[in-house]
Amino acid sequence: IGAVCRKKGVLFHTDAVQAVGHIPVDVDRDNIDMLTLSAHKFHGPKGVGLLYAKKGIVLTNLIEGGAQERGKRAGTENLPGIVGMVTALEDAVNNIDSYRNKLIPLRDRLIEGLELIPHSILNGDRTKRIPGTVNFCFEGIEGESLIILLDKKGIYASSGSACTSGSLDPSHVLLAIGRSHDEAKGALRLSLSEDVTKEEIDYVIRSVKEVVGYLRDMSARRRDV
Hints:
Elements: H1 2-8, E1 13-15, E2 34-38, E3 49-53, H2 79-94, H3 96-115, E4 120-122, E5 133-138, H4 143-152, H5 172-176, H6 181-185, E6 187-191, H7 198-224
Parallel strand pairs: 1-2
Antiparallel strand pairs: 2-3, 4-5, 5-6
Helix pairs in contact: 3-7, 4-7
């Protein structure tokens, strides 16, 4: 995409929030003109992000009135957050191979276990995905109910992106890749960190299987009433 944009003289911005710190990113190789990232995605502090802009790109100021951030965004900088983000990013990039080597087998173990649940659908390619994220759809259930019951078991997951939290509508991304409305409503997203163990993965598999079965049973009972 970057090469096509560069050839046509179009600026290329990429939302790399899910990528940076997890897979190699090279703004020169990938012809990236602008890139955004968020610190909490690689264990940095929440509420801190970064915008990379290639030299020469003119940006419109977000907030006028001060010279902070090269005059582009007035207001006192969150220095502790910035330092924390840089430290976390350095750690993630310097250890990217070792983290990937640990996470990929755990991710694949999770995928294999969840695929055994009847009427489950893996979203995305099985191997061409970032190391620590798994997304499934389970037919016949509501994703929000699944999240609530998993939370009671100490498993913290989501049914969609944080950008759409609070919305009960199914993910437009899942609909765009061919999932039906009912399938997309039963979405589950699980994110793994380098500290996750094989035993915890197995616990998640057992718990999801149990909760999905319970919700489907309850749904069948309601239909019979």
